[in-house]
Amino acid sequence: MHFARLFCVTIICFIAANISTFASDEKNGGVSLPQQVPYLNAREDFFLGNGCAAGGGAGDGTWNFLRGPDYTCPNYLEKEEIRLVVDGIEQPLIVDVHRARKTGIFYGVRTNGDLRIYLIDYAPMGQPWVARMVRVENESPSASHHLSVRAYVKPITGPGRSDDVNSIFNSQDQWIDLKVDTSLKCVMNHFCQNWTNRFVTIAFDKPTPEMLVTNGGYVLGTAAESIGPMASSQTVLYHYTHYDDIPTATYVKRIQRRNSSRDLANCIAWWQKWFDDVAPQYSLDRIADRRCRDLVEGGLAILKMNECRDGGIVANERGWDMSYVRDAYCGLRGLTTFGHFEESKRFIQWLDHKYHVHGLIPNAAPGGSDTYAHPNGNNGRYCPEANAVVEVTALYILAARDYYNGTHDFRTLTKVNTSLRYSMDAQLKYAETNDYRLEFSGDETELCGASDVDGLRAEGFNRKLGQYWSMTSVALCAASLEFYIHYLQLQGKDPAHYLNGQNHKMLNLNDELARLQDALERDFWRTNVPGFPNGFHDWFRVKSNGAWPSGRLLNFTLFPVYYGTPFKDPARGRCDVEAMKQFFNPSVPLLPVTGIPGRKSLGHDLGYLLWDLVAVGDPERDAVYHALVDGPTACCWGAYHEAYSGDGTPNANGLRSFETGVDLSAIGKYWGIGR
Q1: What is the 3-state secondary structure (H, E, C) of 294-316?
Q2: In DSSP terms, which residues pair with 365 in a beta bridge?
Q3: Neighbour-count burial for 348-360, b at 16+ CB within 10 Å, e otherwise
């Protein structure tokens, strides 16, 4: 493996137990960077984070994003640019930023005459800051150069935001303070009030005598220093996020005391251990396709960085920075497929905590605060019975199922028994009330895709979800009940004599599961659609007259197999997959969510189809695999976007937990990971 040289020192490398680490000489600041991962598709915005603070930019050396402390937070930053002043001449530091292999660190390299320059963005786990290291190596055997570093910082301005400059030590150390106050909302300016004032202190780790106020921003500049022949220098710009607890000068002093070389070395070692510390059957070495391995590695890094420090997992940190249960669950499917189970344990504990705080399983909640829980009903408000719809309660139990199946850690589940039981009881109460029919949750991404189709709007689907019965909700309820029965048996309890804590009815859960299986076939199995002679499970029925949908929603028919619904007749699961694979055209590496060529695709369409094709042993899986891995939907960094236009152009909602988790789980299943 080729490693880019960062420091001109002797590096000691060793391999032990198949775990690769980087040894660093602290005296000389020696660290070796892993090689850069090639772009998978066109370069786009990236982010890096550690669960507390996060930053990122366009992949060209500039930043446009900064959040913290805690992930569910307004963005502070409009733009940040690093520039160098070399021998009195200022020049921009424009680089092609790549991810460092087997890490969540991003860096770019360029040369300028005698100088080799590295810009390294990193965020060590457990720290409230993100950093940008500028490393300059003078490769000339005879010439010296004078160098300083400038940061051009342009904060987002407007109501609820303020910025200021400060200094200590006779203005030799100056910094920028940015603030977002409690008048702002944290999630896309729509949801979750900022629960307290938050701040970020932006400062260099070196004397900073230069401070300029520009039109809408600031310039911080370090003191000039001389770099002799074959010598090097490094300067780090820190973004230290914090609450209003101690004077900001204290944070500047903490920055100045940091050992940046050790921080970077530790960050590299942490990431390598995280990737390598899985059982052999989960190793990425089992993926023979180099591009696919890079994709999975990058996707796993994004999923890990989307995890909040308290255990929630945001939908995507650059946008919908709240932990949605659906997005988190699917992200965990990707992580557990490749042997990373601790994140599932933390999420289960996090959601159990939210239940005890709010008395329900929320559709979403912020990372870092208990002040807000997002509605979970299909009317945009809390359901009258808190969790009358089942998506979030079922997915919570399925997260417990997947964690237990991968670890056999029964004790963790018993510690969250109260919230697991609530989640099952709420589903059963509502199902029994409606003859084992259930409504949509109201936040399924597919429903947004369906509402865009003129024919579906005109012929039966108007997204007033109270008018429909949902096939997918019944499928999820049955899947979660099957595991819950097993969970009771592990406790030594009899599922045939079970008291529902919601309505105090004695139930035989085996009979309840049979009734859900019957309802799935009674209400949603159909054989009267031309082109589908073997039949399939369709996605809704109109409550008032039992009318069927006029158009397909492919992912929903693929739902039961992917989520593990126990079919009364397993052969019908195969029929579902065969029915929906007809809409895949190998010459067009997309799968439009409504089956209409040239229309919108969602980022996980191909993932659902691939997982299901592998599950039923269909040879079409090879073509779908190549569409998912080699086609236009994989983003530059290995994650996936929420949606794509008919030509494969992604929407702005990238780096997603939901779509990335589904797709990675399908890729892992294709390669037999975990077996």
Answers
A1: HHHHHHHHHHHHCECCCCCECCC
A2: 323
A3: bbbbbbbbeeeeb
Residue whose entry in the numeric block shows the structure tokens 């809409």: 583
Residue 168 to residue 174: CA distance in whole angstroms: 7
Residue 202 backbone class (left: φ over 0; alpha: ψ -120 to 50; beta: rest): beta
210 touches 83 (CB < 8 A): no
Cβ distance 341 to 304 under 8 Å? no
**Residue 449 confidence class, pLDDT cut points 50, 70, 90:** low
Tell me, what's the pLDDT at 14?
Answer: 30
Closest CA to 51 of 281, 357, 289, 312: 312
Q: Is 393 helix (H, G, I), strand (E, B) or coil?
A: helix
Nearest partner of 491 among 393, 417, 423, 429, judged by Cα: 417
Does the predicted TM-score (pTM) go above 0.85? yes
Between CA 401 and CA 412 the distance in angstroms is 12
Q: How are beta strands 145-155 and 77-86 bridged, if at all?
A: antiparallel
The average confidence (pLDDT) of the chain is 91
Q: Do 450 and 596 form a contact (C-beta atoms < 8 A)? A: no
Cβ atoms 236, 132 nearer than 8 A: yes
Q: At what angle do helices 657-670 and 325-337 cross, to 10 degrees?
A: 30
Residues written for the chain: 675
